[in-house]
Each structure stands twice: as C-alpha cells, then as structure tokens.
C-alpha cells in the first residue's frame, strides 16, 4: 500500500540521517556542561584571520563530508545524473550543515558544539564576519524553537537537499519526482496535530537558509581577495570545489 511505502521511505531517510550524524542527540545532552573556558576562548580570538578561517574551513568540510554521505543514501539521489548530484550538493550541503547545527546548539546559553566543547559567537571573533556568525546562531535558535524530532530533522534535511529550484539542474523533472516523495514522507511524519503550520514554518526556514548560504559565499569571496594563497593552497579541496564558484559545473573530484 502507498502508506507502507511512505513508512519505509521515512525509515530509510531517518536511518541515513542517524548513520551519518557524528553525534547522537542524547549523547550531546550529557556534554552540555563542557563549555570553553575564558582562556580557551581567548586562544581562538588570538588567532589571525587566516588561521581561524583555515581552521573553520576544515571543521566545516568535515561536517559537509557527512552531509555528502547522507545525500548518497537518500533513495533516488544516486539515480540522478552526476551533474545534478553535484549541483544539489554545491547549493545544498551548507544548508544541511546549518540544519544539523541546530541539533548541536544549546538555546539556553546560545552555544554550539565545536571542537569538542560548546562555543558562543565570541569564539569566532577572529573570522571577522560577526554579522554572518550572528545570523547563523540566530537561525539555530529559531530552528531549535520548532522542537523538531530527529525524524523530522532527517526529513527536513532531505527536503532541503533535493530542491528542484536550483538553477544549475539539467533534469529538473527527475529531481522534482524524488522531491515529491520526500514531501509526502515529511507530511506523513507530521501528520495529525500541527501539520500545516509546522510545514509553513519549515518552508520559511528554507528562505533564511538560502540567504545565509549566499552570505557565506560572499564572506568567502571577501576572504579570498585578502588571502588568495590560503584559499588556494591551504583550504580543503572539497571546500573549494563546493564553495569557490569558479567553474560552475566542474567535476568534484573529492566526492
Ligand atoms: O555536526 O561536524 O562536528 C560552523 C562549523 C557544526 C562554521 C559542526 C561547524 C558546524 C557551522 C565550523 C564553522 C556548523 C558539527 C562543527 C563545525 C555543524 C561557522 C560553526 C556538525 C554540525 C556545528 C558539530 C563559520 C561537527 C558557521 C563559517 C565557516 C567559515 C569557513 C568562515
């Protein structure tokens, strides 16, 4: 029956999410007391701009790698053309990282799990993009407020990734078909109670995600102008391939 098929699709995406998340939510609950000391924060703040960027680019790339693994396990993703897979990852992997960030965010004190402990915005000072960091933390806050279950986070992540509106797509109809299944699966999960209002709030979040990622790319462009060597020679290959917009549809060797 269609209902069992949807149930299986849900279960499969939730499993993929679980298997590609570095940490379990209950595990993190017990780590919340681990907060960076004043001295440790100061050490991060004393890094130079390019040191801190390089460090964050590496952390971010680790997180992106797990998202790529998640994408590959979404039913239907691997059947898309190679170029469309790359297009979806280039435009969506950072968005999913930010969705995942909400799982590792403590709204009580506005800190996120980073480098083994919980960190507030001030720790990222030497990136010299306070507006971006503030916006990312605000987003985590607002997503936390929706109190999504792990299953809902999994389905929402898949929906963010399988987005037929990306301009670079070749076979949009095919992406749309995969997406329709995700939407049905998400509705299936949300069913009963507040389905429509929650869905509406989630679609609003998608707009915010898009602007945050545009800001990330803008900041990267600014940084690259100042430190071309750092980006060229010291940033992880995957980070460059996904976010440095040179060859819009070049092959992504690191995938
Ligand atoms: O599970 O992989 O351990 C953020 C990065 C999260 C960026 C990471 C980061 C995450 C965005 C490092 C720098 C979110 C987890 C840890 C590293 C997402 C900021 C904080 C993952 C969830 C929390 C915990 C800076 C992990 C936004 C932007 C990047 C620049 C290069 C300037």
Question: What order do the helices and strands come in, and which of them pair?
Answer:
Layout: H1 2-19, H2 25-29, H3 38-45, H4 49-72, H5 82-101, E1 105-106, E2 111-114, E3 117-119, H6 130-144, H7 150-161, H8 172-190, H9 195-226, H10 228-234, H11 237-243
Antiparallel strand pairs: 1-2, 2-3
Polypeptide structure, described:
It is a single chain. The chain is mostly helical. 65% of the residues lie in helices and 4% in strands. It is built from 11 helices and 3 strands. The radius of gyration is 18 Å and the shape is globular. The model has no long low-confidence stretch (mean pLDDT 92). Ligand 4D8 binds next to helix 4, helix 5 and strand 2.
Short description:
The chain has 255 residues and is mainly alpha-helical. It is built from eleven helices and three strands; from the N terminus they run αααααβββαααααα.
Give the cofactors and ligands: ligand 4D8
Overall morphology:
globular
Low-confidence stretches: none
In whole angstroms, the N-to-C terminal distance is: 36 Å
Number of DSSP helical runs: 11
N-to-C SSE string, H for helix and E for strand:
HHHHHEEEHHHHHH
Characteristic terms for this protein:
single chain; 255 residues; mainly alpha; 3-stranded antiparallel sheet; 11 helices; 3 strands; 65% helix; 4% strand; globular; binds ligand 4D8
């Amino acid at each position: 029956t269609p209902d069992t098929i949807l149930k299986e699709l849900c279960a499969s995406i939730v499993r993929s999410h679980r298997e590609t998340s570095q940490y379990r939510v209950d595990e993190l609950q017990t780590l919340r007391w681990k907060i960076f000391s004043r001295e440790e924060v100061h050490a991060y703040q004393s890094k130079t701009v390019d040191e801190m960027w390089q460090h964050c680019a590496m952390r971010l790339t680790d997180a992106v790698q797990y998202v790529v693994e998640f994408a590959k396990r979404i039913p239907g993703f691997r059947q898309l053309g190679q170029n469309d897979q790359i297009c979806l990852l280039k435009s969506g992997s950072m968005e999913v990282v930010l969705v995942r960030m909400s799982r590792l965010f403590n709204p009580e004190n506005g800190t996120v799990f980073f480098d083994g402990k919980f960190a507030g915005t001030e720790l990222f000072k030497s990136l010299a993009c306070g507006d971006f960091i503030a916006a990312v933390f605000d987003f985590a806050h607002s997503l936390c407020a929706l109190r999504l279950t792990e299953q809902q986070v999994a389905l929402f992540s898949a929906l963010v990734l399988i987005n037929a509106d990306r301009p670079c797509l070749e076979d949009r109809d095919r992406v749309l078909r995969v997406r329709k299944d995700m939407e049905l699966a998400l509705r299936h999960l949300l069913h009963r109670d507040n389905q429509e209002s929650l869905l509406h709030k989630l679609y609003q979040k998608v707009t915010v995600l898009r602007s945050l990622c545009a800001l990330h790319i803008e900041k990267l462009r600014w940084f690259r102008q100042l430190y071309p060597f750092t980006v060229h020679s010291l940033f992880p290959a995957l980070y460059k391939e996904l976010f440095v917009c040179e060859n819009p549809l070049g092959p992504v060797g690191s995938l």
